[in-house]
């Protein structure tokens, strides 16, 4: 008898329900505290079911710690979105009854039906890169606030202030030439020195952060750094926020996730396309950075593609939309190829039907971005005469 153990996680407690996968009958339930000793008690309780699997609701949220602990102990875990358990509750009971036992059983039912549940894997390089990307974002924001404060102090200390592109070294040289004439100006100069020291410390942390990103991307075996316009920061964002690329069935599905899939709209009897304002905006920003870099580099295949769209009569924005869409396909194919090269069995972890076919075969056309007569976006190997990747 195959048993699916559904888990409804909360901050301080977890509720588990063992469900017969064949009859969808709840066999037993258990409630534990969110502590490691209680995790051991839960696993000991589950071992009475030799053929078992786990379905954790929101396994990347409140259930992350338990899900990763179970995987580390050799258990098979799937992630069930809370929206799927809500549908099961509504359809099976016809009402809004809700408690922890019902939620746990609903999560198990979703996994038993092979619905929206997705396999959960042990955290790896993508998790590290996502954390590094988030850390870099926070450091960058902190540096921006510090530099703005430094400019404000320098403006009060010097007539006319200083240049907007001031570096920490230039600010330090400027402060050496300042001769305060009052206690207030002495305080301003001391504050400016503290801010310069803060900027230098943040610059050092950002540099170390970028180096660790580069090392982690290299250790992961990804080929994204071979693409012109993809540096360590962009590669870390793409890998960290995408995770397992095979979870997207097609390049079109990945484009929808990144917000690069065009949307057809009609106005005043005319039809046109624009980019979606939905999707992961951080991934969208990474793809925009790649497109902008390739467009600005003469001789790259991305620039050739952009010029071809402009010669067809498209505006700059329309050509950039096409280039971003094409690059989205290209990046997805690279990540899929990396998965298959580094882990041949990776195809079974995400969508089993994931394919690297061109989006020209997708049901939704994408304003000509898959015209096979046009070149693929450039890579560092195919554009040896151009500048190296960022």
TrEMBL record:
Residues 223-306 form the Transposase IS116/IS110/IS902 C-terminal domain. Residues 5-159 form the Transposase IS110-like N-terminal domain. GO terms for biological process: DNA transposition. This is IS110 family transposase. PANTHER family: TRANSPOSASE FOR INSERTION SEQUENCE ELEMENT IS1111A, TRANSPOSASE FOR INSERTION SEQUENCE ELEMENT IS1547. The lineage of its organism: Bacteria, Bacillati, Actinomycetota, Actinomycetes, Mycobacteriales. GO terms for molecular function: DNA binding; transposase activity. Residues 343-390 are annotated as: Disordered. Residues 378-390 have a biased composition (Low complexity). It comes from Nocardia aurantia.
């Amino acid at each position: 008898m195959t048993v699916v153990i559904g888990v409804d996680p909360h901050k301080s407690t977890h509720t588990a329900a063992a469900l017969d996968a064949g009859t969808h009958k709840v066999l037993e339930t258990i409630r534990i505290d969110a502590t490691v000793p209680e995790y051991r008690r839960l696993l000991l309780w589950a071992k009475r079911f030799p053929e078992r699997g786990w379905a954790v609701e929101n396994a990347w949220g409140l259930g992350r710690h338990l899900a990763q602990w179970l995987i580390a102990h050799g258990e098979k875990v799937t992630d069930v979105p809370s929206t799927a358990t809500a549908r099961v509750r509504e359809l099976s009971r016809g009402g809004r009854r809700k408690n922890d036992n019902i939620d746990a059983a609903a999560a198990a039912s979703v996994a038993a039906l092979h619905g929206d549940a997705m396999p959960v894997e042990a955290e790896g390089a993508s998790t590290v890169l996502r954390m590094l990307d988030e850390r870099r974002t926070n450091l960058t924001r902190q540096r921006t606030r510090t530099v703005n404060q430094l400019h404000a102090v320098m403006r009060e200390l010097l007539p006319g202030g200083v240049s907007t592109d001031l570096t920490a070294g230039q600010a330090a040289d400027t402060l050496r030439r300042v001769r305060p004439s009052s206690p207030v100006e002495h305080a301003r100069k001391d504050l400016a020195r503290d801010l310069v020291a803060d900027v230098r410390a943040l610059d050092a942390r950002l540099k170390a952060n970028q180096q660790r990103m580069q090392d982690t991307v290299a250790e992961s075996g990804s080929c994204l750094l071979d693409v012109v316009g993809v540096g360590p920061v962009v590669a870390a964002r793409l890998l960290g926020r995408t995770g397992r690329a095979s979870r997207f069935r097609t390049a079109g599905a990945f484009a929808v996730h990144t917000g690069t899939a065009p949307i057809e709209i009609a106005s005043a009897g005319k039809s046109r396309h624009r980019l979606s304002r939905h999707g992961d905006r951080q991934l969208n920003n990474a793809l925009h950075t790649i497109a902008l870099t390739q467009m600005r580099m003469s001789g790259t295949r991305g620039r050739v593609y952009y010029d071809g769209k402009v010669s067809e009569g498209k505006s700059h924005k329309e050509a950039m939309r096409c280039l971003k869409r094409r690059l989205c396909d290209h990046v997805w194919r690279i990540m899929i190829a990396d998965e298959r090269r580094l882990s041949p069995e990776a195809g079974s972890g995400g969508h089993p039907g994931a394919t690297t076919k061109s989006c020209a075969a997708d049901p939704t056309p994408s304003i000509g971005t898959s015209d096979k007569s046009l070149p693929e976006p450039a890579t560092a190997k195919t554009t040896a005469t151009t500048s190296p990747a960022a």
